[in-house]
């Protein structure tokens, strides 16, 4: 949980400034106003990627005390 909390704060901010300074203004020579817009779009995409990664990890996490069901258990048949 702490990992995703740190990732949610650091990744969008880092991607925003890296995209603005190095990619859009450095490589593509985009104007200052447009580079803010494009960098914000990149940061929003990064936020969505982090959220999807968190949801994926949360759904794959095992719940303590919950038994995994098998095909035998789900059919209702007993031996």
TrEMBL record:
GO cellular component: cytoplasmic vesicle; endoplasmic reticulum membrane
Source lineage: Eukaryota, Metazoa, Spiralia, Gnathifera, Rotifera
Protein's name in the database: Vacuolar ATPase assembly integral membrane protein VMA21 homolog
Pfam families: VMA21 (PF09446)
GO biological process: vacuolar proton-transporting V-type ATPase complex assembly
Superkingdom as given in the UniProt entry: Eukaryota
KW Endoplasmic reticulum (keyword) present: yes
Keyword Endoplasmic reticulum: yes
